[in-house]
Amino acid sequence: MNLTEAIDWGTDQLCARQIEEPRLEAEIILVHALGIKKSELILHQSLTVKDESFKRYKELIGRRGKREPTAYILGFQPFLGFDIIVNRSVLIPRPETEFLAEQALKVAGRGSRVIIADIGTGSGCLAVALAKKLPLAEVYAIDSSNDALKVAKKNAEQYKVGNRCHFIKGNLLEPLKEPVDLIVANPPYIPSAEIKKLQPEVRDWEPKRALDGGKDGLDHIRKILKESPKYLKPGGRLVLEFGFGQAAEIERLAAGNFEKSEIIKDYAGILRVMSTRAKANGRLG
After folding, report:
1. Which of 63, 157, 221, 226 has its CA 20 to 30 A from that of 29?
2. Same-domain status, 150 and 262
């Protein structure tokens, strides 16, 4: 069997299991199974796939056919140009969170000695990306899961920012001992009743604690909006990701705690990120 035939076989298998973009997925998995570059699929279409390699490919296609997310199969997910290590302990980074990171970078300023808190760091994608793109920044990355923090630390080590990313176990902002310049947060914001309606890749594989935001999806966001001002320096900023249809309520919740708030549309035109400026009072320390 050559490369083209292997892709065709994988495409048929995934199509039969109703996987979206089955050919693209088959190509991604074949590249991973063979340890080759994507370009080689085009340049060497007649290259023979050895039996051992096809066995590995077949195993991975089988996993994808059971709706295991491709990122978990590969062991990583691209995020702002970085390959972020992921496993079932952490949420797979989304394009929406790349948009959140871009907004945080605008707020922080590339040359500043900003101190950042990343709430619910998960894989550490935000903490690592911000530390890499802000070489003078210090990042406190907080998560309630030891397993998630292990993954986040691996990502920080992989990109050599472990000396500026400090990983702390705890709930939301509670572990912080001093105020920071910027808080970034991608909290769980899916309403509990909606979890069962999600795609199997999300519902059955990703950690529920990273998805479930309570009855209306805003349980964690309410706490963040209430508590953030006292953990921010004067003029400090909060940049927060939220879900579809939640903007109006989030604006209302933020109104009494912040001097200025802005709701920003993502690249799909959906209101996705709140950027706020804290009042001067109510700080730690």
Report:
1. 157
2. yes
